[in-house]
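Closing statement on the uridine-diphosphate-N-acetylglucosamine sub-project.
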Amino acid sequence: MSAILVTGGAGYIGSHMNYALLDRGERVVVLDNLSTGVRGLIGAEAEFVEGDVADRDLVRNLIRKHRIEAVIHFAGSIVVPESVTKPLLYYANNTMASRALIEACIEEGVQHFVFSSTAAVYGIPGVSMVSEDTPKEPINPYGRSKLMTEWMLEDTAKAHDFRYVALRYFNVAGADPKGRTGQSTPRATHLIKRAAQVALGREPYLDIFGTDFPTPDGTGVRDYIHVSDLIAAHLLALDALRGGAGSDVFNCGYGRGLSVREIVAAVERAAGHKLPVREAPRRAGDPPMLVADSTKLKLTLNWQPRYDDVDVIVRSALEWERKLGAS
Ligand code: UD1
C-alpha cells in the first residue's frame, strides 16, 4: 500500500494531519527533525523517520521504501519576529529545505504535493478581506521564504508531471476535539496559546503587542481558524489532486477578524476570570490586520467549516493546555 509523507508531523498542525489521515485509513509516514516537534504527538500508527527535509538522499530513500504517493509539507519555521532577526535561518529551513524536498519528489516521481503556505505572503494588504489574487508583497522574511516556495512549486508544476495545492493559513488555533494532540511547542508565541498559559497561571501576564495599530481598538486583527477546519481543507486538497485537479492556491480562514483584545475577552470567558495583561510595543514584522476571503476554498473544494466560533476555539485550546499541565 502506498503512503502519504507528512513532513513536520510531530508539530502542532502536522500531528493533527496524521490523525485525520489515520482516521480514514491512510498509511502515514512522518518526517520530522524534532527541532520543535514532539515525538509523543505523532500517533502510534504512523511510521516515524527522524531526519531533515533538506536531506535529499534520506527523503529519496524513504519515498522509495514507503511508496510515497503524496507529500504534505508542514516542516518549517513559523515565527514572524524571529524571521526578522534570523532571516537566513528562515530561507534555509523554509525555502532551501522545500527546494530539496520538491527536487526529491521530482526525482522519485511523486506527483501530489500539499504545501503549508501563509497569509504572511500578502504583507499589509490594502483591502479588508484578502483574496488569493490580492497582491503578494510580504513584509517579513517568513512571508518571503514561503512565497518563494510557492513560486518554486508553480514553476516545477509547469515543467514536470507534478501538481500541488498551496494553502495559505491565516491564524491557526485550537486543538483536536478528541484530545489526542494540540499546540505543545515549548516557548510557543501564538496569541491564543500564550493567553491559555496565562489563564492557567503558567505565565505571569499576557503582553499585548501594539495598541496603536490602525484597527478599531488599536490592537492587531487576525482571522483565527480552528486547526480541525484547516486539516479538513488539506484532506480536500489531497483528494482533489488525486482526482486529477490542477495545481491551485487557497486562503484558509473564516473571513472574520478578531482583535487581540477580543481574543483576551474570549479567553477570559472560557477561563471564568480576568487575565493579567500588559501593553507592550509592536513586534517587528507584524501587519495590523489579516482577514481571509475564503470563498474560493468553499466553492472549489466544497470546504464547510465546523468550528467557526471563537469560544469553541478558545475552549479547545484551554482544554489542551490543562491536559498538558496534567501530564
Ligand atoms: C501567525 C503564524 C504565522 C502565520 C500568520 C498568518 C504562528 C507562530 N505564526 O502569525 O505563521 O503566517 O499567523 O496570519 O502561528 N500577540 C500579542 N501577544 C502575544 C502574542 C501575539 O499581542 O503574546 C498579537 C500579535 O502581535 C498579533 C496577534 O496577536 O497581532 C497574533 O499573533 P501570533 O499568534 O503570534 O500570530 P501571527 O504573528 O499573526
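The first strand starts at residue 3 and ends at 7. With this model delivered, the sub-project is considered complete and its resources will be redirected to Aim 3.
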